[in-house]
Write a structure and sequence with these properties.
It is a single chain. This protein is α/β, with parallel strands linked by helices and 301 residues long. It is 24% helix and 23% strand. Strands 9-7-8-6-2-10-11-1-12 form a nine-stranded mixed beta sheet, sandwiched between helices. It has a three-stranded antiparallel beta sheet with strand order 3-5-4. The longest helix is centred in the middle third of the chain and has 20 residues, at 95-114. The protein is globular, with a radius of gyration of 20 Å.
Length: 301
């Protein structure tokens, strides 16, 4: 699956920060620059948990990728399909929204490029952005590559009295090739039936395959998982993702790595990982988290 890193993707005289035959790696730097050096199709699974408000000044652009019949200005993508850049009215109504998608869109395009043919993308967003992301991913991957909308539901924090409290995140799941992708339901940890009396004792004892609604607590402020990183996601959510859509020895990529939960779970399940983050605080959290990892994790700039 993984390919050697092409020489033309690395600056002359500078060794690549990651190699398919190397160790699990954490790269400090701008994620768009970092992933641009990686080879096409190198990762079975990509999990992305981007910030919802970047606070960065981005060049404005109201464009998206759509399928085309080819021609001038088209980009050749997966299986020779053509995409062309067009003006997108969707991005014109709100400056903050426009800034956010000018930041996120090129990173999603890179994620599509980096997925193996049988690979899967999990994009983790909140309810305010998920529907816009689906429109963009439908255009980029093709609507037939949409696999699931996972709802991660939790019950923690303040609850407003003037509307239904928002207590869920959305995880959009897209596959590179809808006719050839990995989904290993047998590897996923089963969960108890909500009404065990309605099934046979044998089924109740075995438990059920999780649905697309995942009830799972957030990271406990006093639990063993807590790293102190503000956007840390629980290992249980990532474990389910990695069990279903990767196998032992596969490479997993997360280029909004944060506290490094994707890497921690990947290591525990026998996967190899590449994590990227530009935040010095995130890098320090990951250094502490992987300090005793065996085999050792490489840290690179």
């Amino acid at each position: 699956m993984s390919q050697p890193l092409p020489a033309d993707r690395t600056a002359p005289g500078r060794p690549p920060a990651w190699r398919a035959d190397g160790p699990s790696t954490v790269v400090r730097g701008d994620n768009l620059e970092a992933v641009a050096t990686l080879p096409d199709g190198a990762f079975r699974l990509i999990y992305l948990d981007p910030p919802f408000n970047t606070g960065r000044s981005q060049a404005r652009r109201s464009t998206t990728s759509v399928r085309s019949e080819g021609g001038a200005g088209s980009v050749i993508g997966f299986k020779g399909r053509s995409y062309e850049r067009i003006k997108g009215d969707l991005l014109q109504y709100d400056d903050r929204f426009d800034d956010y998608w000018a930041f996120l869109e090129p990173r999603l395009i890179e994620a599509w490029r980096l997925l193996a043919t049988d690979g899967t993308l999990y994009l983790h967003l909140d309810y305010r952005e998920a529907h816009y992301a689906k429109v963009l991913l439908d255009a980029l991957f093709g609507r037939e590559s949409f696999l699931n909308e996972i709802i991660w539901a939790y019950d923690y924090g303040a609850k407003p009295k003037n509307r239904w409290p928002a207590k869920h995140d959305t995880i959009l799941v897209y596959v590179k090739d809808p006719s050839s992708y990995l989904f290993d339901s047998a590897a996923v940890e089963r969960e108890p039936y909500m009404a065990p009396g309605l099934v046979t004792p044998e089924k109740a004892e075995l438990g059920k395959l999780p649905t697309d609604v995942w009830w799972h607590t957030i990271v406990s402020p006093t639990g063993r998982e807590k790293t102190g990183y503000p956007t840390q996601k629980p290992e249980g959510v990532l474990r389910r993702i990695l069990q279903a859509s990767s196998r032992e020895g596969d490479w997993v990529l997360d280029f909004f790595a944060g506290s490094g939960t994707t890497g921690a779970v990947a290591a525990a399940l026998g996967r190899r990982f590449l994590l990227v983050d530009s935040n010095p605080a995130a890098i320090e959290v990951m250094r502490a988290r992987f300090a005793t990892a065996d085999p050792p994790v490489l840290f690179a700039d």
